[in-house]
Amino acid sequence: MPDMTKPANHPVIKPKKVGILLANLGTPDATDYWSMRRYLNEFLSDQRVIDFPKWKWQPLLQLIILSKRPFTSGEAYRSIWNTEKDESPLMTITRDQTEAISAQLADQYGDQVMVDFCMRYGNPSTKSKVDAMVKAGCTRILFVPLYPQYAGATSATANDAFFRALMEQKWQPAARTIDPYFDHPAYIDALATSVENGYAKLDHEPDLLVVSYHGMPQRYLREGDPYHCQCQKTSRLLRERLGWEQDRIVTTFQSVFGNEEWLRPYTVEHVAELAKQGKKRIAVIAPAFSADCIETLEEINEEIRESFEHAGGDVFSYIPCLNDNPEHIDALCQFISENLHGWVEKP
User: What is the set of domains in the chain, with CATH numbers?
Assistant: First the structure.
């Protein structure tokens, strides 16, 4: 029976849903020069990432950095590219995570929720996915940056893109963003399980576990960014959960860019020092990344491994990110359910 309270030409109103939008850093569409340049330009033009004045930074970026770096970055991406699906591993893994989370939440909430993912840089864009959720009838959206530790250059810029997308909606959905989960027991348990499983596969127990986080300028810490403190707490809670003494684990920072002093110790330098000090067998884990990507598969497993072995290290073991491990999916679903409180109830 037609709804007599609406005029005949009234737009169709979809049944209400709650959207859960996962967000990761991003990926180039391909490894050629122009695809890499578009991606790097978007990434390195973000003032949450590089906060120099535009008048000073943009000429350097456009005329020098982007004339050379797309070649070297493209080569690095080609070394890890998923050739079967013609996409980066980050895209593959984030999609797998989304499908697993969607299936688990569908069991809990039925068709009341819609789960999808976006990228801060590149495709699929945050705006395109917010548009799709609104068109699908989502009157509420929970935005979930897949960064355990909060940082202005990761969580905050992802939130910025989400809020900008909301600004363009005629009928804005209610919105929430998830808290950082760096110290959540379910996340720490998932990390510890990955370490235990990784060690169980090795012939010899490593002398040390190197917990490597993405770096940032030390200046950001002084300006109030909590990232460094949250990384340190994650490492401490992981060690305590594993029941280890302090000398079995060390926290380091990778991916240094530019001439500014960054958080120390630098992973690539520190692993070489460890080898020279007699720590001949190490394992490395990267808890700041929810999915394996260029910084783990290429930087850690190639550049940092080479630094350790060149300095005399014998056995370098990389423990993969949590990716779509069942423990990680369960943890993410737990965070999401906690943040959905009051929005949707289990049938």
Answer: 17-180+327-339 (3.40.50.1400), 185-318 (3.40.50.1400)
Contact 311, 329 (CB under 8 A): no
**Residue from 138, 144, 146, 177 nearest 25 by CA:** 146
φ, ψ for residue 149, nearest 5 deg? -100, 135
Q: What is the pLDDT of residues 221-246, one digit of tens each?
A: 999 999 999 999 999 999 999 999 99
CA–CA distance, 19 with 316 (Å, rounded to integer): 41
DSSP element (H, E) containing 21: strand 17-27
pLDDT of 158 over the 80 cut: yes
What is the arrangement of strands in the sheet containing 281-285, beginning at the earlier edge strand? 249-254, 208-214, 281-285, 315-318
Q: Can you tell me the distance from the alpha carbon of 290 to that of 287, in angstroms, rounded to the nearest whole number?
A: 7
Please report how many Cα atoms fall inside a 13 Å half-sphere around the Cα of residue 304, on the Cβ side. Answer: 33
Q: What is the mean pLDDT of residues 115-127?
A: 98
To 5 degrees, how large is the angle CA 81–CA 328–CA 44? 45
Please give the Cα distance from 72 to 83 (Å, whole number): 19
| Cα–Cα distance, 55 to 65 (Å, whole number) | 15
pLDDT of 258 reads: 82
Q: DSSP states of 95-153 as a string?
A: HHHHHHHHHHHHHHHGGGEEEEEEEEEESSBHHHHHHHHHHTTEEEEEEEES-SS--II
3-12 confidence digits (pLDDT tens): 556 666 656 6
